[in-house]
Amino acid sequence: MDLGIAGRWAVVCGASKGLGHACALALAREGVHLVMAARTRADLDASAAHIRAQTGVQVIAVPADVTTESGRARALGAAPQIDILVTNAGGPPPGDFRGLARADWLAALEANMLTPIEMIRHAVGPMIERGFGRIVNITSSAAKAPVDILCLSNGARAGLSGFAGGAARQIARHNVTLNNLLPGKFDTGRLRSNNAARARRSGLPLQEEIALQTRAIPAGRYGDPDEFGAACAFLCSAHAGYITGQNILIDGGAYPGLF
Asked: How far apart are CA 42 and CA 230, in angstroms?
């Protein structure tokens, strides 16, 4: 399927690895030019070079921490225009809520709720003027099914979902969509670090912890980041203009509910 977005420009955050990189690559394969933002220059440059070589699109690599005002300004200002915005920031650390300080909560809200809101606020006006825009927040399945040791993420992601649901309905008439993609367990560095933390807490060998988790997923495996990237690219496509304000769970069937 031709997604109808070749030649558009996308800003993709957290694009050097994991699910952010998968989204950037999927968009580039559709002919979308990229601004890739991430904090670590070496990883970012390697990822940008990989995508250029594979796809031939224009790729601007911007080393930036988008949780800061200056980092957001560098990332958003690097694109000639922003047709597509994919927000993404590393999740806060796991932990028991009883051991967390107020500063931990404020940092989580800044990174995983307020930063995406600020980036959307900046990008949405020109999208409305041009009559096209696609915004996707990479959040977490924890926004729908809270995870015991991810209380910081549970709260911040749920807050972002609430904001997005209201904002999406304000801008839908302009062919600007706003959706949240909620990944379950995908084979990324973030998941591997969480698994290690769980194994330490449970006292189980790491491989046994992984086996327990995959048995709980109806698909019987972790997700492949490329699968996530493909879903993101479709939501950013010309064909997805009637999908907005949604929390779309991609978790191999792990969530047991209907809604």
From this structure: 25
Closest CA to 34 of 17, 18, 19, 56: 56
Ranges of the chain whose pLDDT falls below 70: none
Distance CA 245, CA 223 (A): 24
How much is the pLDDT for 206?
Answer: 86
Residue 255: which of 155, 184, 165 has the closest Cα?
184
CB 98 within 8 A of CB 72: no
pLDDT at 147: 84
Q: How far apart are CA 76 and CA 82, in angstroms?
A: 8
Q: Identity (one letter) of the amino acid at 140? A: S
What torsion do the CA atoms of 240, 13, 62, 57 make, to the nearest 10 degrees?
-30
User: Is this model's pTM higher than 0.85 or not?
Assistant: yes
Burial of 19 (0-12, 13-18, 19+ CB in 10 A): buried
H or E element that contains 193: helix 189-202
Tokens of 240: 């997805």
Tokens matching residue 227: 């699968």
Length of the chain: 259
Q: What is the pLDDT of residue 76?
A: 98
